Amino acid sequence: MHDLSSFRQNLDAIALRLADRGFTVDTGTFRSLDTERRAAITEAEKLRADRNAQSQEIGKLSKSGADTTELRERVRQMGERMKELDQKAAELEANLQAMMASIPNVPHASVPTGKSADDNVEVRRWGTPPEFSFAPKAHWDLGPELGILDFERAAKITGARFVVYKGLGAKLERALISFMLDVHTQHHGYTEMLPPFIANKDSFYGTGQLPKFEADLFKLEGTDYYLIPTAEVPVTNYYRDETLDADKLPIQFCAYTPCFRSEAGSYGRDVRGIIRQHQFQKVELVKFAPPESSYDELESLTRDAEDILQRLGLPYRTVVLCTGDLGASSAKTYDIEVWLPGQNGYKEISSCSNFEAFQARRAAIRTKSGKKSEFAHTLNGSALAVGRTWVAIVENYQQADGSVVIPEALRPYMGTDVIRAG
RNA sequence: GGAGAGGUGGCUGAGUGGUCGAAAGCAGCGGUUUGCUAAACCGUCGUAGUGCCUUAAAGCGCUACCGGGGGUUCGAAUCCCCCCCUCUCCGCCA
Question: Closest nucleotide to A68's CA, by C1' atom?
């Protein structure tokens, strides 16, 4: 959500940059809505001020014993007219709000201009994709062969896009979660959190999933609750409607949660394997930062995510998303893509974003130093998507005999150095 | 799920129809005093919208906000209705 008065003041410049996203701001409609709304507010408030003054007069008069019948009737009529004006103002307000809620964030100056994912720019690359003396398999073959993934029975239990991890497969997922949380809490300065996996409407509004993206969510029938699609929702909303002491920033949280996504509109994409599921596990990093240093925090957050891949010895590259590929709330996003032999290419495993004050304004997360109060900047990034990390390990560390070697760093968590069939 | 108590500014807490954006205390901020610390004293101290003024900030007004929504009334923190949340007891339960 944009700040209304600065949006109004910088309308043309903002509209120009939003055009780089492929978003057109209807500046004419905005201007007229904005002007009408303010006129309605002014009119209604003037009448209300008048009524308040008259009401007080009634109070004084009746105390002194004077007859106020006539005055009362006049004020009552003012009240009726007030109701009409209030209603008109409320309607205009709602229209303007609806318009503002649909306008995406302004990309940061450092974000490259482009139309689609093809225009994203690689900023660095780490590691070398493994060379195999045999034809490497994809995880959807390896998993069932090793007895560590079961798609058929998951489909029976629930349906498509669900999976059962089994045996060392389940343990690998659990080991990755513990490993990631330990690295972030012990080496990167994050505080671990275990939040609710269900959140209410206000929280989803605060981080921007509502009202626009309701179709992507699972709603709990008969309630205002939704299953979270990412820990970003509960963890960012942890401080909704609060003012944070500027001295305490940045605040850094990490959280493991399952994530639930309806994946409406992704039919036919990543249908094989566990790349795209209705439920997946993720460790998320969330930061609350002072505006002046939020871009430094984005850099370190991205490095924190990359560190997990380095420790696991998984080759990856980091790209900065271009204006056309940027999420609506984000001002700048890095995607980290891990090498997957099964796809013979790099696949997104993390997305690290700075939302600047875009979420904080919706969620009313402020920071205060001395007398000055302003909106904090919020950031988040996956570190990492656990299921896709699982895939990366199984595919990158597969051996000619069909077994999977466990990377050094994970062995204490796995209690074994290899996964074999049987 | 049942019974009861309660939700007021950063915190504690007064306030049952007009003089209440709201006493008082604490914390914060500015200052005086002080060798330092502590203490004392004086002042200041909510958020948002909107109008005027302004390059802007500041300033000066107005409006709204006492958990949320609706109602009664000329006028609501205060009365009525619905909802949410917290606490205590009971029931159920991992």
Answer: B74
